[in-house]
Every structure is written in C-alpha cells, then in structure tokens.
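Inverse folding, one chain.
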C-alpha cells in the first residue's frame, strides 16, 4: 500500500472526509495515530471470510476503530458450539445464518460503518472471488485451510490487495500476512534531534504464502531457534498438511497422533531446523493438538483476533511496522512469537 494513495477501493470515486462528529468520536484514536491514518481507515473496505471466533474478535475491533465498510462472507448456520467464542450470537440464533444473526449487532457497535454480508458459495470460487477482491482494499481470511489460503493469496496478488489470514486450532493460533510492497512511517531513533529522531519512510517486501511455506531455518542459531518456539510453528504447519491430505478434516482422534507426529517431523527436517535446539516434535505437543484442534477456546480467539485486528489497522494507517510475517500463539504457555518466513 503506497503512502501516496488513500486506502480506498477502486469502486469509491471520491475519498470520504472525516466529519466533525466523526472526529469527536475517534478523538482518542486520532491523537494516538493521527488524522491521516484515521482517514485511511475511514475509507477502507475490508472483506472478512469465515465467521467464527477469531473473526468475531477481529470484526469487533476494526468496526470500533472506524473502518469505512465491512463485507463478511460466511455460508454456515449458527451451531450450539458457536455460542462460546461467538459473542454476536444468542441461543435463539442457532439454525440461522451466522451473518444474518450477527449483522444488526455488528452495526450497533458503530453505525458509521457500512456492513454487508454474503452467503453464496460461488462468491469464493473462480472469477467470482476475483471480482469480490477487486472491490475491496484488504482481505482477511479466518479459520481456513492452507490450500484455500494459497489460492486466495494468489488472487489477492493478481489484484494487488494485501492479505491477512488468522485462525486457531484449540490452544494454538496463527496469523500470516502478505502485504505485497508495504510502505509505512517509522520513527528514526538514530537521529540527533532533541525530540528523539525524525519520521522516515520504510518499505518492506512480503512473500506470498506458497513461498513462505518453503522457508528454511538454515543458519539459525540454537538460541534463536529456541526463542522462536518452533513447536508451535511446525505443529500448525503439520495441521495444515494434515487437512490438505484429509480433504479439510482435522485430526480428532488418538489414532491420528502417529500420523501427525510423522508429518511434523518431516516438515522440521525439510526446513533444516537446528537439531541441537529442536531435534523433533515433542510427543505431548502432538497429543494436545489432536485432542484440542477441532475446538474453539474464547480466550485464544480473543488473543489472536485482537492481534489480527490491531495489525490490520497498522497496515491501513501506515504509521507503524506491521507483522512480518508469521505469528504463532501458544495457549499452553501464553506466549507468542513472530517468524520471518522467506522474507529478507
């Protein structure tokens, strides 16, 4: 996203200016990151794909922050298990379309944000998805499988649209982003000015997911490897691989422990991870993943969804360095780490 261009979709002919009432509403945010950043958010259209726990938390935060338009795609009905992490849903919503049940409650958070919903499966297929992506400024896909994320990333790259992906597998969570060539403003603390430095422009080149998955850990020291918590990284990558092999299904029985362990260790060996620091995937990590991967925990969704929303706002506001480029959250320890995958 270029600093010289407003964060508006091609469908918007004229950027919307922030009114006095909006300036009063967003006063605290404007003082935090500036009027120009708030203006970019105000003119942004964001597409969120899949409406589960992570999307719920993300949507809440970006709507309260004052984006221009939110488009939510989801074709599923509210199920009883959605009531845990899906705080937009009520008992009486079970059986209704998720987006239909939640739309009015999302709008009530911030009436200044336009909310649209989509339920057609064809919207995410072929040229239909290309058309949807061309009409937005940023795509956020939650709780999806790896193969769809790769395809969606390719579509976003063709249209020059940034992509965020995030989700949870029980106690584990992840965020991946491909912001293409992203330019942002950072404070130069090396300057000699009395105020601590001056603002400088920084450009970062991101890699698409298909390249990020080929990332090699060669040359990473023992200490650095341990600090990145490779267990969380590679069990998530192994779950993606398992889903791909099993037509989208996750391991949900102890009979899959050996298979998931083998997949994990194959990925670790292929990535050339420092054997002194991380020789193999711990058996207990695999067992926990198999036990919990199909479940949603509200606390994990809150952490991942909150960070996802925060980083989306950073990318739109171009005032701070966004995530680069793969974040994992380990609910077993309450810790998060960022790995630069195939980024220089």
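Residues assigned per position:
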């Amino acid at each position: 996203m270029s600093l010289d261009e407003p964060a508006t979709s091609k469908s918007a002919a004229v950027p919307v200016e922030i009114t006095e009432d909006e300036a009063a509403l967003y006063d605290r945010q404007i003082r935090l990151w500036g009027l120009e950043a708030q203006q970019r958010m105000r003119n942004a259209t964001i597409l969120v794909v899949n409406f589960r726990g992570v999307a719920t938390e993300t949507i809440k935060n970006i709507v309260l922050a004052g984006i221009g338009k939110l488009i939510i795609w989801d074709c599923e009905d509210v199920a009883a298990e959605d009531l845990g992490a899906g705080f937009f849903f009520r008992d009486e919503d079970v059986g209704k379309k998720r987006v239909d049940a939640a739309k009015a409650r999302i709008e009530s958070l911030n009436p200044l944000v336009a909310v649209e919903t989509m339920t057609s499966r064809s919207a995410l297929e072929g040229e239909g998805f290309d058309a949807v992506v061309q009409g937005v400024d940023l795509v956020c896909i939650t709780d999806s499988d790896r193969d769809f994320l790769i395809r969606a990333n390719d579509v976003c790259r063709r249209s020059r649209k940034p992509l965020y992906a995030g989700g949870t597998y029980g106690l584990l969570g992840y965020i991946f982003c491909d912001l293409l060539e992203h330019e942002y403003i950072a404070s130069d603390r090396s300057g000699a000015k009395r105020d601590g430095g001056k603002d400088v422009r920084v450009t970062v080149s991101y890699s698409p997911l298909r390249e990020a998955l080929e990332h090699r850990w060669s040359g990473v020291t023992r200490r650095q490897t341990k600090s990145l918590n490779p267990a969380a990284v590679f069990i998530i990558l192994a779950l993606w691989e398992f889903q791909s092999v099993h037509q989208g299904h996750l391991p949900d029985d102890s009979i899959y422990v050996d298979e998931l362990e083998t997949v994990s260790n194959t990925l670790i060996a292929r990535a050339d991870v420092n054997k002194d620091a991380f020789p193999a995937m711990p058996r207990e990590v695999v067992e926990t993943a198999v036990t919990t991967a199909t479940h949603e925990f509200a606390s994990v969704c809150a952490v991942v969804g909150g960070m996802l929303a925060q980083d989306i706002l950073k990318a739109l506001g171009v005032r701070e360095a966004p995530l680069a480029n793969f974040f994992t959250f380990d609910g077993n320890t309450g810790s998060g780490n960022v790995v630069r995958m195939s980024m220089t």
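The CA atoms of residues 101 and 271 lie 44 Å apart. The first helix runs from residue 20 to 25.
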